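Below is a filled-in request sheet from our internal design queue. Each sheet records the structural input a requester submitted and the sequence that came back. We keep these sheets so that new team members can see what a complete request looks like end to end.

REQUESTER: design group, bay 2
PRIORITY: normal
MODE: inverse folding
CHAIN LENGTH: 250
BACKBONE (tokenized):
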């Protein structure tokens, strides 16, 4: 599941960065996307410089997907998640407009298509991560030599679940147990991690410590405080000692 998110957000990042660079004139081989326009309206028309997401997606396929080798389940899931990241960038594009008129009035508007912030893309993919589907290969007699992942090749491991869409994240191996140390999977576990005893979130001791409990200790901390700037030119500070309570997972 975690690998699915990494592949998707990496592919989305390449798409987003290249598409934005095209519209900013930072890449000689591409420009704004002047084709991305609709029918217009009574008081506005298409213009401006739309972000070239089509070029970004094309570049991402050639650059990111080229690392994939083989025709097995790993290959299909990686390409599927790459495409899901690219599709997320495209689907979240929004129309922006600039007003034209006397004294700042908006009698006429020029509109174009703008990429979402990458934070928006990341938040969307995080939601997809939470609902990612575990899949198996569906042998339907289709051509597995195709370079692009086809959702029809993948079906949910649980027959009761719906097939993944092109924007869903998919995986085929269970995530390791992040609660315990494992040299094989490279997980460090959560023993010794500092946690928040009053938080119900992911940083809370109840979740972070995986039910093992936690220990509490008080330590003294010396920090620089009451700093003053003297002309010219140095800063003098006092040393202040305070106590703080730490909670660490067992």
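RETURNED SEQUENCE:
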């Amino acid at each position: 599941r975690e690998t699915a998110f990494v592949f998707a957000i990496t592919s989305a990042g390449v798409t987003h960065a290249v598409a934005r660079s095209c519209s900013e004139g930072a890449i000689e081989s591409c420009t704004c996307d002047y084709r991305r326009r609709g029918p217009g309206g009574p008081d506005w028309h298409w213009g401006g410089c739309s972000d070239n997401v089509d070029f970004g997606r094309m570049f991402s396929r050639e650059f990111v997907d080229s690392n994939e080798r083989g025709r097995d389940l790993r290959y299909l899931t990686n390409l599927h998640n790459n495409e899901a990241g690219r599709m997320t960038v495209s689907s979240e594009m929004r129309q922006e407009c600039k007003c034209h008129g006397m004294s700042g009035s908006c009698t006429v508007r020029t509109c174009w298509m703008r990429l979402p912030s990458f934070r928006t893309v990341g938040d969307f993919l995080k939601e997809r991560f939470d609902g990612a589907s575990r899949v198996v290969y569906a042998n339907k007699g289709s051509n597995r030599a195709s370079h692009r992942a086809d959702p029809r090749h993948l079906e949910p491991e649980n027959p009761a679940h719906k097939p993944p869409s092109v924007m869903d994240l998919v995986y085929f191996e269970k995530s390791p147990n992040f609660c315990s140390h494992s040299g094989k999977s490279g997980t460090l576990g959560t023993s010794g991690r500092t946690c928040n005893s009053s938080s119900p979130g992911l940083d809370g001791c109840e979740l972070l410590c995986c039910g093992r409990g936690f220990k509490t200790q008080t330590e003294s901390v010396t920090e620089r405080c009451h700093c003053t700037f003297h002309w010219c030119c140095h800063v003098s500070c006092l040393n202040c000692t305070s106590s703080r309570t730490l909670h660490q997972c067992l």
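SHEET NOTES:
- The radius of gyration is 26 Å.
- Residues 142-147 have pLDDT under 50 and may be disordered.
FILED BY: M.R.
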